[in-house]
Amino acid sequence: MADKAVMTGTYFMNGDYACCEGALAAGCRFFAGYPITPATEIAERMSRRLPELGGIFIQMEDEIASMSAILGASWGGVKAMTSTSGPGFSLMMENIGLGICTETPCVICNVQRAGPSTGLPTLVGQGDMMQARWGSHGHYEVIALAPSSPQEMFDLTIRAFNLSEQYRIPVMIMADEVVGHMNERVVIPRREEIEIVGRRKPKVSPDKYLPYHPDPDGVAPMANCGDGYRIHITGLTHDERGYPGMDEKTQAQMVNRLIGKIVNNRDKIIRTENVYLDDADVVVVAYGISARSARQAVRDARARGIRAGLIKLETVWPFPEALIRDVAGRVRALIMPEINAGQMVLEVQRCAGGACPVHLVSHLGGSIIHPATILRAIEDSIKGKK
Amino acid sequence: MADKAVMTGTYFMNGDYACCEGALAAGCRFFAGYPITPATEIAERMSRRLPELGGIFIQMEDEIASMSAILGASWGGVKAMTSTSGPGFSLMMENIGLGICTETPCVICNVQRAGPSTGLPTLVGQGDMMQARWGSHGHYEVIALAPSSPQEMFDLTIRAFNLSEQYRIPVMIMADEVVGHMNERVVIPRREEIEIVGRRKPKVSPDKYLPYHPDPDGVAPMANCGDGYRIHITGLTHDERGYPGMDEKTQAQMVNRLIGKIVNNRDKIIRTENVYLDDADVVVVAYGISARSARQAVRDARARGIRAGLIKLETVWPFPEALIRDVAGRVRALIMPEINAGQMVLEVQRCAGGACPVHLVSHLGGSIIHPATILRAIEDSIKGKK
Amino acid sequence: MSYTIMNKEKHILITGFGGQGVIMAGDILGTAATLYDGKFATMTQAYGPEARGGACSAQIIISEEEVLFPYVKEPHVLICLSQEGYAKNIGSLREGGMLILDADLIQARKISSDIIAYDIPATRFAEELGNKMMANIVTLGFLAAVYNLVGAEALRKAVQTSVPAPTREMNSRAFERGSEYGKATLKSRAKQGRLARD
Amino acid sequence: MSYTIMNKEKHILITGFGGQGVIMAGDILGTAATLYDGKFATMTQAYGPEARGGACSAQIIISEEEVLFPYVKEPHVLICLSQEGYAKNIGSLREGGMLILDADLIQARKISSDIIAYDIPATRFAEELGNKMMANIVTLGFLAAVYNLVGAEALRKAVQTSVPAPTREMNSRAFERGSEYGKATLKSRAKQGRLARD
Amino acid sequence: MEGLIRSERLPHIWCAGCGIGTVFGSVIGAIQKSGYDLNKTAIVSGIGCTARMAGYIRLDSFHTTHGRALPFATGLKLANPELKVIVVSGDGDLLAIGGNHFIHAARRNIDITVICVNNLNYGMTGGQLAPSTPFGAKTTTSVTGCPEEPFNFCYLASACGAIYVARWTSLHIRRLTNSITEAMQKRGFGFVEILTPCPTSFGRRNKIGTALETLKFYHERSVIRNDIDPKEAPIDFGNNIVVGKFVDTERPTFLDNYQLSCKNLIGDWPDFEGTIVPENQAG
Amino acid sequence: MEGLIRSERLPHIWCAGCGIGTVFGSVIGAIQKSGYDLNKTAIVSGIGCTARMAGYIRLDSFHTTHGRALPFATGLKLANPELKVIVVSGDGDLLAIGGNHFIHAARRNIDITVICVNNLNYGMTGGQLAPSTPFGAKTTTSVTGCPEEPFNFCYLASACGAIYVARWTSLHIRRLTNSITEAMQKRGFGFVEILTPCPTSFGRRNKIGTALETLKFYHERSVIRNDIDPKEAPIDFGNNIVVGKFVDTERPTFLDNYQLSCKNLIGDWPDFEGTIVPENQAG
Amino acid sequence: MKYWRKPLDLESIKASRGKVIIVEDRCKGCGFCIAYCPRDVLAMSQVFNARGYHTPAVIDESKCVNCHFCEALCPEFAIFSIEATEAAQGKTARSRRKHK
Amino acid sequence: MKYWRKPLDLESIKASRGKVIIVEDRCKGCGFCIAYCPRDVLAMSQVFNARGYHTPAVIDESKCVNCHFCEALCPEFAIFSIEATEAAQGKTARSRRKHK
Ligand SMILES: Cc1ncc(C[n+]2csc(CCOP(=O)(O)OP(=O)(O)O)c2C)c(N)n1
Ligand SMILES: Cc1ncc(C[n+]2csc(CCOP(=O)(O)OP(=O)(O)O)c2C)c(N)n1
Ligand code: SF4
Ligand code: SF4
Ligand code: SF4
Ligand code: SF4
Ligand code: SF4
Ligand code: SF4
Ligand SMILES: [Mg+2]
Ligand SMILES: [Mg+2]
Which of B34, C111, E131, G36 is the most buried (most CB within 10 A)? Predict the structure, then answer.
């Protein structure tokens, strides 16, 4: 291969591997991780691929160390990633918070298995969706994406890196065991066709630089360690200089900006695929692997003459509030399939605000939801059975 | 003192200490913890009090170990507790999940400070409320209580132990820095006046015992280690025997029961204090330290002729859905003060289902919300300003 | 469930123990279909906690169109390399479907007559060729001969690009051995009509 | 903010450095009010990351009724044991309020005439009595003499039950020293009228 | 022996030739031999192939989270000191993610017997490098050879204060059983490491090969050196695999000292009466 | 020196008599002495009084989470090997919650200089016991005396493979500065421990008393013993506080070996040609 | 080749006569018992068991000294030795399932 | 008593003359400089600084040998010594803030 980083071509590849290729194509050159089913293949492939590209792979002693190490690497000026599954994701939470508070670009891929606890290590779940939003202490906003195919594992990993650099935030890829382990066609485009967002570097000299003084979009340019800016970075509440400020005013400024830079750029961050929304009587909202079943069910419903539509969430956090609110006012029901006992559906309910009923199609983990189950829910909702 | 465990009497005591006295009165005889502001005083007092009662205090190497150790101690047959604040709470998440999955009674007191990350270590926050619900991977239900005074730190710690034994679940006390560090009158009743729930032990012989075969209320009797039942306990998805079952059926059974034992007993678990709800035009929903400001604001509003009411959540999880839904249909607005950017208010919004507007009064951390701010929100909501 | 498989989809289920190369066989099938036959394919796997010896399976769907739901519930082709896999899945095979099993490893029950059943001593052949682990490739060779799912050439290519370079030669022999046995079987079948094992 | 303090509440703010016993003084005040004077009281504390030497304060509210909002924004009584605490809080003292400060540690600005200001060399007294750390107790003795917030007997009791047993004797002396100085100050004030420092 | 096995759960998940099964038999043998009340004997494990032992033994048994067997066991033991608590753990479980608990439990001298199956890699997740993986060995996360030096677990245990430290291979089956029995019969933190083949995840990627070949290799290179400082007993595959009982000593357990402290009997610190070197050399 | 201090942030938070300030001065002195490009020198800390050093030094500096300075620093260093990375950490930060990262970073020989201020307790949270608290010492969580034996950090560091290990008190100020400079100038995991007074949280609960009294005590009992096995150099307050430079050696760093592995130059494992003892004793 | 088969625990072997019982369905064919039997009692058979493994067969039971080493080493609890009585001597090993 | 004041780093002391500068507001009165000055140049004063600490005072600057030991030991960066020049010799230490 001429271009070792961007393996242009067509592959029959699993999602975990596609995630690696996405990362490498996006410029990731540092990976710290700890094996865990069903994310292990990501670490394994990275351990083979990074040395070919002059990058660093290190298997750390645990997930806490892995998360810390990628934060350090990011400040070292290198795009960095880790991958894990539920138990490791839980362990990473404290340092994901540090990443958010210090505004450190990096990517975490969580290949979800069924929980709680050790659960079903080799089988699928979507039970960490709310954890992605709320798993670390304190209040903050996040960006999380949900791929539903190996191809999306590739595409969304690139997007995750881009968003993380654009908004200086750890971005989470909320994959799942099926997407991770499933082999499917993956097309890797040519390097020139891939959009890459680089780090926004300071334009002022070190003596004028304020590490947390934002540009108009709420995001501050970032000096790397070693660039001569002599930055101080802390997880304490800090002011624009990066210095601790132990008072409610500094706290409000900092937290407002951390939240604002995501909320105010929502429209640029959120992507959904909207199918048949124009005339839909009932709309299925779905993400990740469940979105495939949902799409099939919507097709089947249409085949049976039911005006069903689909909102496929590519971005799961921030949540597309406005879209759901809007659609809820126009349809007879919203339906959400999830491989959990109802997580994102709570947001759908909240945003629907009573404008239409919202039905959950739940599977508690171990396998994916059959399209027929969703189809039945669509039919029932139209009949007003539920 | 005659009764070393129940220090009957009246005290001017801070909330952290009151929490200890509640724990000891409830029968707690094991504490494993790791210091962290503003929860350190709990560990410190436990380190002095437990030796007097023949109990064990151990300072572990970190919060992960502390959480693991109390699970072990609980299986050893002893009521056990740990305490922490945000960063430590994040670290505990994985093993809280183990406690939930293995149905291990124990209590975790989180004295919240302002986050994210290290944030304001010595100042108040209420930013971990959603983390309490969603902080560990996989889907499950929790019980969490929110005290708003040192007296409630005492009372609710006892209740936490009782609920944890009753429902075999780790119970979280979601305190905060102000409640923890504030001194106030604490009345410790006589031992006879304190209701204590003991462990529900198996009534069958070891060969007939199924560790996860529930009584009609969904909770299974629990044999302690050393009782001769030769139990096997695992965080893997398990059947009634406690044996791993790596299939979706076992998963569904287990998770449904873990969720069901809480959801189906909701009415017994949820406690709220409802003030002036009968004729209220606007109702403030509040918890923890913010509930004191809310109560003051409601009094002030009444003094100004506004028919304001208060729902004070003593139980924050499970959330009183039905109550909120009901009240939302009867009032002109719901108002929620929180020391975060809006967490429990999302639940209020969801449950209100559009029946009335729901307003957040937010403080981002560092101090508590002034009653006047809430009063203004009450006034505005009546004027329909917001 | 009243749900029907998309018209243009072919569902294949390969079952066996961890370590038999079940997943690899699925991978090769999918690769052949996707890369060398211009089709769509998905391959999902199911396995337990065991690293070796546990039940595992590969589910492959090959189609002219994008595949959405990737599970195989009622396969058109069921390949069994273990007794357990056979026992668990034989009931799911759809009417008129095809069963391929390694008869050295599996004692089959009476098989309903609307099933096309083949038996190949894949493990024994593989062992004879130098490595028991190539039973999967033998089986693929057999499949290529008896069922027109993906082109034999596509499969051959996929085998060559999927196995470790030093073992290409050996695997190629394994594939041909299976293929020949398949052709021979077809011939004898043509004479005898369908086989109903006892 | 248009908010008014509950009628029956008295708000006290004690400020100083970590290590001066500021919190302990607040604790003793609250204990005296709650346990020995039958009142309601809350004490909240504010401190920074420093273990010693950082600004810290105790906010005490004493009332006939349950106290809800526990912060002291505009104290009736401000006790200052540090320059920083003085500078930061003097503006919040309410009209007609009382200021008590350790003049060895604080250089006060011109104080508005509607404030009752006292100055006591509490740290020096404490040092003389054997331990600088008892400045807080000296100050409490002084407060007991000059302001009828909680009964002096209640305060005495609270001091005795709050300090470590071996230091009771010493602290008792510190309290009385402050108290005497307070009485003496009151007497001389009675002669001179209010003090306006320059 | 069969009575101590949850035979309704057989076959176990371990691969053909995996040494864990052998060690499991040895653990069961030692438990029987030790003579403890079986109703008061508990097994705690984390997560991994080795950790699955807890699921096959008919005793109170706890299969907890990855790396956390020791703190869980600490809570269990301290809550009910009557229990004899055994921890079974893989090298990764115990000393990668669990390393901190290991050093602290050893330092505190918690009365627990720790059995570590060292198969030189993470078996359960398919063969990644572990803190035991020999320099240069091939794993799925070090395909061109492991770039890290491994720990000498026995040295680490002893440096942290373990009162019993031994190492065997799974071929030293009777010595191993004796060692586990001895460790159990002592009060305090005992540590027994067992080198085992993991043919599936480790062996097939390295020249060490099948389980049988691995045992042969271990057999050839093992030398027994009892009582030597474990610092001098690294597992040096290029030369000798030193096995033996390295440490067998006594010191008060955490609980002993805790009980003293409860009675305020720990004594004064610092001891100003202590001997100091005659000539003050600090300068 | 003042140029390296963020003097706009003074006064610092450390208490009167706290040894951290002294050590901070020493660290700054060593950084200047070492001659590294200051724009390529970075400080990483966790959380604690000691960890606050990162906030007062005018270098790229990272105040991370409690216990995680080392993995953060590992990422930083590996991502940009040009950097000289120094970790400053309290005893609790480094060896209670951070213990696992410590042993693994030492084992891997990550090229980082680790400076540990050992004040025998958790200063920042007000004086709880730490893995350094002497047996019997009083802390807020061991009011009747600490029931745990402390680690000998230097022994642990050396057992895990640190290439430079030294211990001083904050009174050995020039030797300390030299040691930090030496450690920085080496490639690999260097560890310097400094015993310091914490009068506020530790001293006042123990007979060791004020900062000045503590220094006096350290002075009286310190003996310098360079090059001895740190195993023989416990901090024995009852007798001697052994200080000195204990280890000063060389071995390839993680990065050295990683780069070898990238080029597939690590060599074969196991080495079947290795010497085995003449007589096979395994039996 | 003979050398490395020397059992590690020879000292504990009693010179009695043994009978070997193989639970075929548990066996995973690792060959430990065969390789480490001090008396070459066992050899690998060509049959597959239900899980696809070749299992050991007793080739000369008269040589068995009932040392239990095979039993102790077997990771599967699939082989046992018992004291051979006159009566038992004649019978073949139990528990063998028939396969073609 | 004298004994333990012997500085630990005597060897590096140059026998020049020094001038001591105390930044009073930084000082926290720990007394290190006083106790460990090899020449007894300093003593504790009775004044409080703004933060309530007693600070050291120079009692006999002529004895100062500019060894910098006070400077190195001071945890607060509050004391420095410089080479005494004829000119500087006369002046008193800088940076002292007045308190009553
Ligand atoms: C927090 C967490 N991280 C990772 C895993 C995945 N995991 C399970 S077992 C294991 C390692 C097993 O290795 P070892 O402890 O050596 O045991 P072995 O399987 O080799 O006996 C890992 C990484 C997990 N279960 N939990
Ligand atoms: C996860 C987590 N747990 C606990 C704390 C609270 N905490 C802050 S510093 C500290 C210990 C400080 O002790 P040490 O590391 O010895 O540093 P010192 O203050 O003594 O210099 C603790 C427990 C925290 N910040 N984060
Ligand atoms: S993977 Fe390795 S350790 Fe795990 S069961 Fe198989 S051989 Fe044993
Ligand atoms: S608490 Fe101790 S370590 Fe922290 S600054 Fe004060 S004296 Fe130093
Ligand atoms: S008992 Fe087993 S190992 Fe011993 S001689 Fe008989 S067959 Fe061989
Ligand atoms: S040792 Fe056990 S599993 Fe291995 S071949 Fe012999 S009987 Fe079978
Ligand atoms: S420089 Fe400082 S320590 Fe040295 S003699 Fe002068 S005053 Fe004393
Ligand atoms: S050493 Fe520094 S802080 Fe201490 S007394 Fe001297 S000048 Fe003041
Ligand atoms: Mg292992
Ligand atoms: Mg410390």
Answer: B34
- Answer yes or no: is pLDDT of C52 > 90: no
CATH 3.40.50.970, chain A: domain bounds: 9-193
Closest CB to A244 among F55, F65, F100: F55
Q: Which residues of E touch G51 (CB under 8 A)?
A: 11
Q: Which chains touch B (3 or more CB pairs under 8 A)?
A: A, C, D, E, F
Tell me which of G22, G24, G33 to substitute to probe ligand 6's pocket, judged by most ligand atoms within 8 Å of the beta carbon.
G33
Q: What are A207's two structure tokens?
A: 């003596």
* CA–CA separation, E1 and B252 (whole Å): 35
pLDDT of residue G95: 41
From A55's Cα to the closest Cα of chain E, the distance in A is: 14
Check CB contact of G28 with chain E, cutoff 8 Å: yes
Instruction: State whether CATH 3.40.50.1820 applies to domain A272-383.
Output: no
Domain ranges of chain E: 2-251, 253-283
Give me the CATH topology for the region E2-251: Rossmann fold (3.40.50)
Q: Does the pLDDT value for residue E280 go beyond 50?
A: no
Say whether pLDDT at E282 is over 50: no
Predicted ipTM?
0.95
Within a 13 Å sphere around the CA of A289, how many CA atoms are in the beta-carbon half? 34
| Size of the D and H interface in Cβ pairs below 8 Å | 18
CA of E201 to the centre of ligand 5 (A): 29
For the Cβ of E64 lying below 6 angstroms from any atom of ligand 1, the answer is no
Q: Which fold has domain D9-191?
A: Pyruvate-ferredoxin Oxidoreductase; domain 3 (3.40.920)
Q: Which residues belong to CATH 3.40.50.920 in chain A?
A: 272-383
Type of residue found at C8: K
β-partners of residue C101 are C80, C119
Residues with CB under 6 A from ligand 2: B 34-36, 63, 87-88, 91; F 47-50, 66, 90-93, 117, 119, 122-125, 130
Q: Which residues line ligand 6 (CB under 6 A)?
A: G 22, 27-33, 55-56, 74, 76, 78-79
Which of these, F224, B212, D46, lies nearest to E277 by C-alpha position? F224
Residue list, CB under 5 A from ion ligand 10? F 90-91, 119, 123
**Any contact of G with F, at least 3 CB pairs below 8 A?**
yes
Q: What is the pLDDT of residue C198?
A: 37
Structural domains of chain G sorted by starting position, each given as residue range(s) with its CATH number in brackets: 15-99 (3.30.70.20)
Interface A-E: count of C-beta contacts within 8 A: 44
Name which residue sits closest to atom 2 of ligand 4, judged by CA: F198
pLDDT at B29: 98
Give, in order, the Cα–Cα distances in Å from A157 to each of A143, A147, A194, A289, E22.
12, 9, 12, 16, 44
Peptide bond into B170 cis (omega under 30): no
Q: Are the beta carbons of D121 and D101 closer than 8 angstroms?
A: no
Nearest to G57 by CA among G89, G27, G100: G27
pLDDT of residue H5: 41
- What are the tens digits of pLDDT across the range C164-193? 999 999 999 999 999 999 999 999 988 765
Q: What would the two tokens of residue A140 be? A: 């903050």
Report whether F73 contacts F87 (CB < 8 A): yes
C41 and A185 Cβ atoms separated by less than 8 Å: yes
Q: Which CATH number fits domain B9-193: 3.40.50.970, 3.40.50.150, 1.10.3210.10, 3.40.50.1360?
A: 3.40.50.970
Give how far E227 is from chain G: nearest CA, Å.
20
How far is A285 from chain C, CA to nearest CA, in Å? 16
Within H1-100, where are the H helices? 32-36, 69-73, 86-90
Domain layout of chain C by residue ranges: 9-191
pLDDT grade for E276, boundaries at 50, 70 and 90? low
Tokens of B264: 């189906």
Give the gap in angstroms from C-alpha E54 to the nearest C-alpha of chain B: 8
